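Lecture notes, part 5. Sequence design as translation. It can be helpful to think of inverse folding as translation between two languages: the language of shapes and the language of residues. The source text, in structure tokens, appears below.
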């Protein structure tokens, strides 16, 4: 069975974004092992708000990884992701039992 893993960058006060939603500080320092971590996953699970913010940065950052975005509204395929709604628990159970390496729960 595959593992679902979580890697979140946060500031020392335990925030990912400023109160304005700005996350520019994430891109000013080194990636702290993110490159190595990304080599250990082949699938990303992303919330819709996080995904929409990712798109504002330019190119989708997880090319070559299977991507799923959890959303109640969007359903079409976009870039390298598929939108998922409905019975998320069942979806995750199925995904965990498919072949592949680990899954990253991308969050913020």
């Amino acid at each position: 069975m595959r593992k679902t893993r979580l890697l979140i960058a946060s500031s020392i006060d335990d925030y990912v974004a400023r109160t304005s939603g700005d996350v520019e500080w994430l891109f000013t320092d080194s990636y702290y092992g993110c490159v190595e971590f990304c080599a250990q996953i082949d699938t990303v699970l992303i919330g819709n708000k996080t995904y929409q913010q990712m798109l504002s940065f330019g190119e989708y950052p997880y090319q070559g990884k299977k991507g799923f975005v959890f959303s109640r509204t969007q359903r079409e395929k976009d870039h390298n992701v598929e939108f998922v709604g409905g019975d998320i628990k069942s979806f995750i159970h199925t995904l965990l039992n498919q072949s592949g390496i680990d899954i990253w729960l991308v969050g913020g």
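The translated text above is only one of many valid answers, since several sequences can fold into similar shapes. The chain has a mean pLDDT of 81.
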